[in-house]
Amino acid sequence: MEKQGLLYEGKAKKIYATNEQDVLWVAYKNEATAFNGEKKAEIEGKAKLNNQISSLLFSMLHEKGIQTHFVKQLSDYEQAVKQVEIVPLEVVVRNATAGSLAKRIGVEEGIRFENPIVELYYKDDALGDPLILDEHAIFLQAATQEEIDSLKAQALQINKVLSSFFKERDIFLVDFKLEFGRTSQGDIILADEISPDTCRFWDVHTNEKLDKDVFRRDLGGLTEAYEKILQRIGG
Ligand code: U5P
């Protein structure tokens, strides 16, 4: 497979066309951003860590019967994915209070929910990705009700698989963000990445944060935390 022209550059990845139909070439970047791009840094080694972690997790989800865009890892920092039309919604699953939710409803972090909560955020940098209702997503033509039902059901299924996978590795999956895409056949499948950039991971014994909160809150070295995640998942 050959890499062709750059199609899109986001905060964390560059996407290229390839000579294969419906296959894209993704190159992870070392740039770390937080607070809608207000805080930025170049962190050597981050691209490699996220690509490896996300590739391992997408392969594991595939083995568990979850359809994803992941095709294969191409290099330390690159992977091939199926071309999809990204649904402009961030789907957040929460197993405990943390981050923006703890702040919004005025509670401490780390209170576990009996049942996971799924939230939708509208992907729009200018608006700062606001939390929205299903009805708003439908009004904005981001997705149909049927698509929203499908992506929420998939998000809960993915949460079950990921939570137990990480629990076996002494990590509590506090919350995470997913993105979905439409295939040319009209199916909604898991896309984007799953990495310490997009999840909150807490060590079950020490409560040590092993995710991007280390960068957001200046708690220590980002690559050291991400390396611990990679090691625990067998990378
Ligand atoms: N998250 C992202 N990207 C975003 C916003 C949130 O990946 O643009 C992830 C966080 O890493 C966290 C979860 O795991 O979604 C909930 O974030 P927050 O709403 O508590 O900030």
Automatic annotation (TrEMBL):
SUPFAM superfamilies, alphabetized: SAICAR synthase-like
EC numbers: 6.3.2.6
GO biological process per UniProt: 'de novo' IMP biosynthetic process; cobalamin biosynthetic process
Reactions mediated catalytically: 5-amino-1-(5-phospho-D-ribosyl)imidazole-4-carboxylate + L-aspartate + ATP = (2S)-2-[5-amino-1-(5-phospho-beta-D-ribosyl)imidazole-4-carboxamido]succinate + ADP + phosphate + 2 H(+)
Transmembrane parts of this sequence: none
Pathway this chain belongs to: Purine metabolism; IMP biosynthesis via de novo pathway; 5-amino-1-(5-phospho-D-ribosyl)imidazole-4-carboxamide from 5-amino-1-(5-phospho-D-ribosyl)imidazole-4-carboxylate: step 1/2
Chain ranges of the SAICAR synthetase/ADE2 N-terminal domain: 6-232
Family: Belongs to the SAICAR synthetase family.
Entry-linked HAMAP family: SAICAR_synth (MF_00137)
Matching NCBIfam families: purC
Protein name: Phosphoribosylaminoimidazole-succinocarboxamide synthase
Source organism (scientific name): Priestia flexa
Lineage of origin: Bacteria, Bacillati, Bacillota, Bacilli, Bacillales
